[in-house]
From TrEMBL:
It holds the Pfam family PhoU. This is Phosphate-specific transport system accessory protein PhoU. Homodimer. Belongs to the PhoU family. Its main location: cytoplasm. Residues 29-115, 132-217 form the PhoU domain. Keywords: Cytoplasm, Phosphate transport, Transport. Gene3D superfamilies: Phosphate transport system protein phou homolog 2, domain 2. InterPro entries: PhoU, PhoU-like_sf, PhoU_dom. It is found in: Cytoplasm. PANTHER family: PHOSPHATE-SPECIFIC TRANSPORT SYSTEM ACCESSORY PROTEIN PHOU (PTHR42930). The gene is phoU. NCBIfam families: phoU_full (TIGR02135). It comes from Marinobacter lacisalsi.
Protein backbone atom coordinates (compact mmCIF):
# COMPACT_ATOMS: atom_id res chain seq x y z
CA UNK A 1 0.00 0.00 0.00
CA UNK A 2 1.46 3.42 -0.91
CA UNK A 3 2.85 5.44 1.95
CA UNK A 4 0.64 8.51 2.15
CA UNK A 5 1.75 10.55 5.13
CA UNK A 6 -0.26 13.69 4.59
CA UNK A 7 -0.93 13.92 8.32
CA UNK A 8 2.81 14.28 9.04
CA UNK A 9 2.39 18.02 8.60
CA UNK A 10 -0.37 20.23 9.86
CA UNK A 11 -0.68 18.83 13.41
CA UNK A 12 1.05 21.61 15.33
CA UNK A 13 -0.32 23.36 18.39
CA UNK A 14 0.16 26.65 16.56
CA UNK A 15 -2.56 27.02 13.95
CA UNK A 16 -0.51 29.77 12.32
CA UNK A 17 2.38 27.36 11.83
CA UNK A 18 -0.01 24.92 10.19
CA UNK A 19 -1.23 27.71 7.92
CA UNK A 20 2.34 28.74 7.05
CA UNK A 21 3.27 25.20 6.01
CA UNK A 22 0.04 24.78 4.04
CA UNK A 23 0.67 28.08 2.24
CA UNK A 24 4.21 27.01 1.32
CA UNK A 25 2.95 23.71 -0.09
CA UNK A 26 0.10 25.35 -2.01
CA UNK A 27 2.30 28.01 -3.58
CA UNK A 28 4.82 25.37 -4.60
CA UNK A 29 2.07 23.32 -6.27
CA UNK A 30 0.78 26.44 -8.02
CA UNK A 31 4.23 27.08 -9.47
CA UNK A 32 4.48 23.41 -10.44
CA UNK A 33 1.18 23.61 -12.31
CA UNK A 34 2.40 26.69 -14.17
CA UNK A 35 5.68 25.17 -15.41
CA UNK A 36 3.91 21.93 -16.34
CA UNK A 37 1.49 23.90 -18.51
CA UNK A 38 4.35 25.97 -19.94
CA UNK A 39 6.05 22.78 -21.12
CA UNK A 40 2.87 21.38 -22.67
CA UNK A 41 2.10 24.68 -24.40
CA UNK A 42 5.64 25.01 -25.75
CA UNK A 43 5.51 21.55 -27.33
CA UNK A 44 2.09 22.31 -28.83
CA UNK A 45 3.44 25.57 -30.26
CA UNK A 46 6.33 23.66 -31.83
CA UNK A 47 4.16 20.99 -33.40
CA UNK A 48 1.49 23.48 -34.54
CA UNK A 49 4.08 25.90 -35.93
CA UNK A 50 2.48 28.65 -33.82
CA UNK A 51 5.01 31.45 -33.44
CA UNK A 52 2.58 33.72 -31.58
CA UNK A 53 1.95 31.08 -28.90
CA UNK A 54 5.69 30.45 -28.61
CA UNK A 55 6.32 34.15 -28.02
CA UNK A 56 3.62 34.24 -25.32
CA UNK A 57 5.25 31.29 -23.52
CA UNK A 58 8.62 33.01 -23.49
CA UNK A 59 7.01 36.14 -22.02
CA UNK A 60 5.30 34.14 -19.26
CA UNK A 61 8.68 32.85 -18.05
CA UNK A 62 9.04 36.06 -16.02
CA UNK A 63 6.12 34.92 -13.85
CA UNK A 64 7.96 31.66 -13.13
CA UNK A 65 11.03 33.63 -12.01
CA UNK A 66 8.87 35.82 -9.77
CA UNK A 67 7.23 32.81 -8.16
CA UNK A 68 10.64 31.26 -7.50
CA UNK A 69 11.82 34.37 -5.65
CA UNK A 70 8.60 34.62 -3.63
CA UNK A 71 8.73 30.97 -2.59
CA UNK A 72 12.38 31.26 -1.57
CA UNK A 73 11.54 34.31 0.52
CA UNK A 74 8.53 32.58 2.10
CA UNK A 75 10.62 29.53 3.01
CA UNK A 76 13.39 31.71 4.47
CA UNK A 77 10.90 33.68 6.57
CA UNK A 78 9.34 30.46 7.83
CA UNK A 79 12.73 29.14 8.97
CA UNK A 80 13.59 32.41 10.69
CA UNK A 81 10.20 32.82 12.36
CA UNK A 82 9.33 29.25 13.29
CA UNK A 83 12.76 27.59 13.55
CA UNK A 84 11.30 24.28 12.33
CA UNK A 85 12.91 21.00 13.35
CA UNK A 86 12.95 17.40 12.10
CA UNK A 87 10.16 16.69 9.59
CA UNK A 88 9.13 20.35 9.26
CA UNK A 89 12.67 21.41 8.48
CA UNK A 90 12.90 18.63 5.87
CA UNK A 91 9.75 19.96 4.22
CA UNK A 92 11.06 23.52 4.01
CA UNK A 93 14.52 22.48 2.81
CA UNK A 94 13.00 20.15 0.20
CA UNK A 95 10.72 22.92 -1.09
CA UNK A 96 13.70 25.26 -1.49
CA UNK A 97 15.49 22.59 -3.56
CA UNK A 98 12.41 21.65 -5.59
CA UNK A 99 11.60 25.27 -6.40
CA UNK A 100 14.96 25.44 -8.16
CA UNK A 101 14.01 22.38 -10.22
CA UNK A 102 10.68 23.94 -11.17
CA UNK A 103 12.40 27.15 -12.26
CA UNK A 104 14.70 25.09 -14.47
CA UNK A 105 11.73 23.28 -15.97
CA UNK A 106 10.40 26.73 -16.82
CA UNK A 107 13.74 27.52 -18.48
CA UNK A 108 13.50 24.34 -20.56
CA UNK A 109 9.97 25.28 -21.64
CA UNK A 110 11.31 28.69 -22.66
CA UNK A 111 14.03 27.00 -24.75
CA UNK A 112 11.42 24.82 -26.48
CA UNK A 113 9.35 27.92 -27.20
CA UNK A 114 12.44 29.60 -28.68
CA UNK A 115 12.95 26.72 -31.11
CA UNK A 116 9.22 26.63 -31.83
CA UNK A 117 9.45 30.27 -32.88
CA UNK A 118 12.48 29.55 -35.07
CA UNK A 119 10.78 26.65 -36.82
CA UNK A 120 7.55 28.62 -37.23
CA UNK A 121 9.59 31.15 -39.22
CA UNK A 122 11.79 28.69 -41.13
CA UNK A 123 9.23 25.92 -41.67
CA UNK A 124 8.68 22.53 -40.06
CA UNK A 125 11.55 20.10 -39.69
CA UNK A 126 10.99 16.98 -41.83
CA UNK A 127 11.44 14.56 -38.92
CA UNK A 128 11.30 14.34 -35.14
CA UNK A 129 7.84 15.53 -34.17
CA UNK A 130 6.50 12.07 -33.31
CA UNK A 131 9.46 11.58 -30.97
CA UNK A 132 8.96 15.04 -29.45
CA UNK A 133 5.30 14.31 -28.74
CA UNK A 134 6.07 10.91 -27.25
CA UNK A 135 8.84 12.09 -24.92
CA UNK A 136 6.87 15.21 -24.03
CA UNK A 137 3.90 13.11 -22.90
CA UNK A 138 6.24 10.94 -20.86
CA UNK A 139 8.11 13.70 -19.02
CA UNK A 140 5.08 15.92 -18.38
CA UNK A 141 3.33 12.90 -16.86
CA UNK A 142 6.39 12.36 -14.67
CA UNK A 143 6.33 16.01 -13.62
CA UNK A 144 2.61 15.90 -12.87
CA UNK A 145 2.98 12.72 -10.83
CA UNK A 146 5.98 14.08 -8.92
CA UNK A 147 3.88 17.08 -7.89
CA UNK A 148 1.07 14.73 -6.93
CA UNK A 149 3.50 12.64 -4.86
CA UNK A 150 4.57 15.83 -3.09
CA UNK A 151 0.96 16.84 -2.46
CA UNK A 152 0.12 13.45 -0.94
CA UNK A 153 3.58 12.81 0.56
CA UNK A 154 3.64 9.50 -1.28
CA UNK A 155 7.15 8.06 -1.33
CA UNK A 156 6.04 4.93 -3.17
CA UNK A 157 4.84 6.98 -6.13
CA UNK A 158 8.03 9.05 -5.97
CA UNK A 159 10.08 5.86 -6.34
CA UNK A 160 8.08 4.91 -9.45
CA UNK A 161 8.98 8.29 -11.00
CA UNK A 162 12.66 7.68 -10.31
CA UNK A 163 12.39 4.39 -12.20
CA UNK A 164 10.82 6.17 -15.19
CA UNK A 165 13.83 8.44 -15.61
CA UNK A 166 15.92 5.62 -17.10
CA UNK A 167 13.23 4.93 -19.71
CA UNK A 168 13.20 8.61 -20.71
CA UNK A 169 16.98 8.53 -21.17
CA UNK A 170 16.64 5.49 -23.43
CA UNK A 171 13.86 7.13 -25.47
CA UNK A 172 15.92 10.30 -25.84
CA UNK A 173 18.96 8.39 -27.06
CA UNK A 174 16.87 6.42 -29.57
CA UNK A 175 15.23 9.59 -30.90
CA UNK A 176 18.60 11.30 -31.23
CA UNK A 177 20.05 8.37 -33.18
CA UNK A 178 17.07 8.44 -35.55
CA UNK A 179 17.52 12.15 -36.26
CA UNK A 180 21.27 11.85 -36.71
CA UNK A 181 20.78 9.05 -39.22
CA UNK A 182 18.27 11.15 -41.13
CA UNK A 183 20.63 14.16 -41.22
CA UNK A 184 23.47 12.00 -42.52
CA UNK A 185 21.24 10.80 -45.33
CA UNK A 186 19.92 14.26 -46.22
CA UNK A 187 22.05 17.24 -45.18
CA UNK A 188 19.61 19.83 -46.56
CA UNK A 189 17.59 19.88 -43.33
CA UNK A 190 20.36 19.82 -40.75
CA UNK A 191 19.52 23.22 -39.23
CA UNK A 192 15.86 22.40 -38.62
CA UNK A 193 16.59 18.87 -37.41
CA UNK A 194 19.15 20.25 -34.97
CA UNK A 195 16.45 22.52 -33.53
CA UNK A 196 14.31 19.45 -32.90
CA UNK A 197 17.26 17.69 -31.27
CA UNK A 198 17.67 20.60 -28.86
CA UNK A 199 13.97 20.35 -28.05
CA UNK A 200 14.40 16.65 -27.28
CA UNK A 201 17.33 17.50 -25.02
CA UNK A 202 15.21 20.08 -23.17
CA UNK A 203 12.47 17.49 -22.64
CA UNK A 204 14.98 14.97 -21.33
CA UNK A 205 16.07 17.59 -18.80
CA UNK A 206 12.45 18.10 -17.73
CA UNK A 207 12.39 14.40 -16.89
CA UNK A 208 15.58 14.83 -14.85
CA UNK A 209 14.00 17.63 -12.82
CA UNK A 210 10.85 15.57 -12.23
CA UNK A 211 13.11 12.82 -10.91
CA UNK A 212 14.86 15.32 -8.62
CA UNK A 213 11.51 16.36 -7.18
CA UNK A 214 10.64 12.70 -6.57
CA UNK A 215 13.94 12.20 -4.74
CA UNK A 216 13.12 15.13 -2.48
CA UNK A 217 9.67 13.71 -1.75
CA UNK A 218 11.37 10.55 -0.48
CA UNK A 219 13.67 12.72 1.64
CA UNK A 220 10.68 14.52 3.13
CA UNK A 221 8.74 11.36 3.92
CA UNK A 222 11.48 8.89 4.82
CA UNK A 223 14.18 11.24 6.12
CA UNK A 224 16.81 9.68 3.82
CA UNK A 225 18.71 11.40 1.00
CA UNK A 226 18.47 9.10 -2.04
CA UNK A 227 20.22 11.39 -4.51
CA UNK A 228 23.10 9.75 -6.39
CA UNK A 229 22.16 6.33 -5.02
CA UNK A 230 21.20 3.20 -6.98
CA UNK A 231 17.49 2.57 -7.44
CA UNK A 232 17.79 -0.61 -5.40
CA UNK A 233 18.98 1.39 -2.40
CA UNK A 234 16.19 3.96 -2.82
CA UNK A 235 13.70 1.07 -2.95
CA UNK A 236 15.03 -0.24 0.36
CA UNK A 237 14.54 3.20 1.91
CA UNK A 238 10.92 3.40 0.73
CA UNK A 239 10.18 -0.23 1.60
CA UNK A 240 7.31 -2.42 0.38
Amino acid sequence: MPKNKDDMYGDHISHQFNDDLASLKNEFLKMGGLVEQQTIDAVNALIDGDGYAADEIRARDKLVDTMEKELDEEATRLIARRQPAARDLRLVIAVIKMVSDLERVGDEAKKIAKFALTLAEEGHAPRGYVEVRHISNHVTTMLHESLDAFSRLDSTQALKIMREDKRVDEEYQAATRTLLTFMMEDSRNISRCMAVMWVLRALERVGDHACNIAENVIYMVEGEDVRHTPLEEAARVVGP
